[in-house]
Amino acid sequence: MENTPKRKQRNKPGVVLFTAVAVMLMLSILLTATVSYVSVNRTKTNDNYKSKQAYLTASSTLESFINQIQTDTAPTNDPTAKAQQKKAIDNLKKLASANSGKGTTTNVSYNGSNGKSDNIGTTKITVAQEGTSAKYIVVTCETTYLGKTEKVAAHISTHPVPKPAEYTNTIELVGNGGAGYDNLNVIGDMAGINNTTGKIYRFTNNTSIYGSYLMYGSLEVSTQPLIMLKPSLVDEKQGSTVTISENLDVSNKFRINSTMARADGYNYVNIGQKLSTSNHMDVGSSGFDVDLFCCEANIGGNDYTQYGNFYVYKGAGAYNGDATFGANGQTINGSLYVEGDLNVTKSLKVTGSVYVTGTITGKDKIVCQASNIHEGAVLSKAGRDAKPQIPVSADAYVYYPEDFFMSNDTNVTTISDQYQAFYDGSNTKTFNTFASDWTNVDYTLTELIDLTGTGAKTPVTSRYKLRITSSCTWASDLSFNDYGNGSRILVDVSDSSGDIVIRLQNGLNLGAEWSPVIVVRNRSTIIDTTTGDRKYNCYFVSDSGSAITLNGIDSVTGKSQHSGSSACNYSFKGLKVFDYDTYVRMFDSSVLNNTKGNPGLPQSGFVLNPTSVDVAGSYRPKNSSIIFLFGENTTLNATDQSFFQGSFYSPQAIVNIATSGLGGLVVTDSAGGKMTVQCCAVGVVIANSFGNANTAFYVYTKPSTTSVMQNAKGGKDDYAYGYELDRYDHY
How many CB atoms lie within 10 A of CB 263? Predict the structure, then answer.
């Protein structure tokens, strides 16, 4: 990614996360660092130099202040952090509105390396209103150095700004019903975000999650699933957690392990209500503690083994923090904390201490030093012992695909003109339209590509049966003789094409004899300097019609309301969708030179890296510019080795990817560990409900920040109380 010019950085929005006192303290530190260069060169006394030094001190101080704010801030879902943001901005406004809007001025002097005051000038920092409202603030740095004064200012607008959407889950269920997972394997995080009580999710047949899991409802485990807590794929410095808002019921072997040593903030299981086990549960491992929190525990059946602390704290309603341990073989390699009563009916080994606020029944069955058993204890619930909070609700979606299809608000969508053109008669193009133009048939593309990540580019040739260069409908009008049997179809996104929107004709049903291979190449040259994402994207959209009515934002839920969306049904067998840059690295020339056929397994040596850091010998895709937008009541069924590299935003649709996917894909983690998987999708899948079958994996890659998905989240509870830097002036 190219370096961001400083002038562009000045226009980047930020959020102040510290109090006004901390702001002034930080400015003092920055100023001290800034003038160290000045003190070394203070023997030069010409006026030009004096002015330059005064300007350098003032401007670099102010710019460092702005950059520091931008560096230290990020959108947050935490209500406490949001409150701190609002308080900080309110404090800033108070400083600005003081003295009838003339603001607050602070003088800063400089210290030399010997700790004594250096007579090298002073800076006045003023925070004042710009105009009659503290909504608009000007922060001025005025530096006087050896008689020369220079002044610079940052003009700020303070207002709640919508929090940009973040997508951290590989699979995310939005619906209010439960679900069952059969052989589902997720690399990345997974969530069920609808906070409807009473939902039950079920893990069967070796389901595994390599990341975090958050769900509102209860989880039933019956056939040996695994949750492997791994570093976050969004931020490798963070770990992972398991959060279940209601009950966890384990009737067959369940393992929750970690690849990380425990640290505050991650490596825990947090159950909002009751934990029940009847047949073998393992939590953590030697050297990799995982703490467990619940509000009631009933450990029975065979074998409970944990490395980490076990906490049973009181909860809402009838959950009194009671615990019963009656399993055949139960060991806690850590400490046990019980806020209610503890009942031990079979031998319980605890390597640490036992703290019980109430009474202990069966104390003689606890294998632990007697001096480490504390009855009638007072629990601190601080530090490591503090119960993590279960969020009241997950980050809610405000805008739906229907808003992207029909809204006239450019702050919401960039594709409504292309979408509506399918229905007003101005765009009648289909795939077959491009097949009628010989320049798009049997298309050969040769491009210089850095395949090794070393900067050295080599020519790579790939061939396609058909090329698509603008928005159109994928209808059932292509000739099977020409375009069946795994035809490669290139979708070519460029500056001239803009966003390419491909409408899937309702009822599109392609059997295994078709098995199309879609490759999306994005070469738009307008690039977001912050994320590196290209401006234009490729959208596959449902045929939801033009009768959609947008009924505004609901005053209670804060969500967009719509009606009139047509139901759609799609069925694909063997459909594969690739990003071009991945496709030409994943397969060798023998595959790339074919215009038809199943591409088969990735070539030897290809390693996909879904993490946020570079790993030697692997390929890390950029944020996906391939977006599937399915409206309300749409159903997608994809089977027979279908594979999707792209993101699904289908919060009111059903996505069934019941397929073994792409075989032989090697995936790495941030430490260079590798696993070979059958892969169904690389991206994120957001759906009302989700269906899967067969032992297949879903791998995380976030959607492009320039896509309309960036606008999907927001609303009354999703604002960051911050500022925007409007301009930077030198007086």
Answer: 11
Cα angle at 263 between 262 and 268, to 5 degrees?
60
CA distance 223 to 165: 35
Q: Residue 15: is its pLDDT beyond 50?
A: no
Could you identify the residue written with the tokens 């947008």?
Answer: 550
Query: What is this structure's pTM?
Result: 0.77
Q: How far apart are the first and last CA of the chain?
A: 34
pLDDT, one tens digit per residue, over 262-302 is: 887 789 999 999 999 998 999 999 999 999 999 999 999 99
In whole angstroms, give the CA distance from residue 471 to residue 421. 9
| Beta strands per DSSP E along 3-147 | 104-108, 122-129, 136-145
Kindly report the three-state secondary structure assignment for every residue of 160-197: EEECCCCCCEEEEECCCCCEEEECEEEECEEEECCCCC
Distance of CA 673 to the CA centre of its chain: 22
Which residue carries 């040996």 as its tokens?
224
CB 239 within 8 A of CB 260: yes
Residue 706: count other Cβ atoms within 10 Å of its Cβ.
Answer: 21
Which residues share a beta bridge with 628? 540, 648
What is the rounded distance in angstroms from the CA atom of residue 525 to the CA atom of residue 300? 61
Helices (DSSP H) in 290-427: which residue ranges? 401-406, 416-421
Give long-range contacts, CB 8 A cutoff, 24+ apart: 547-552.
548/402, 548/405, 548/406, 548/631, 550/402, 550/403, 550/406, 550/407
Retrieve residue 634's tokens: 């749409």
Distance CA 241, CA 293 (A): 11
Residue 538: strand, helix, or coil = strand
Number of alpha carbons in the 13 Å side-chain half-sphere of residue 660: 6
For residues 308 and 267, is the Cβ–Cβ distance under 8 A?
yes
Beta carbons within 8 Å of 624's beta carbon, 6+ residues apart: 579, 645, 646, 647, 682, 683, 701, 702, 703, 704
The answer, yes or no, to whether residue 19 has pLDDT greater than 90, is no
Residue 33: how many CB atoms within 10 A of its CB?
12
What single-letter DSSP state applies at residue 531?
Answer: T
* Residues ≥6 apart with Cβ < 8 Å to 343: 322, 323, 324, 325, 326, 360, 361, 362
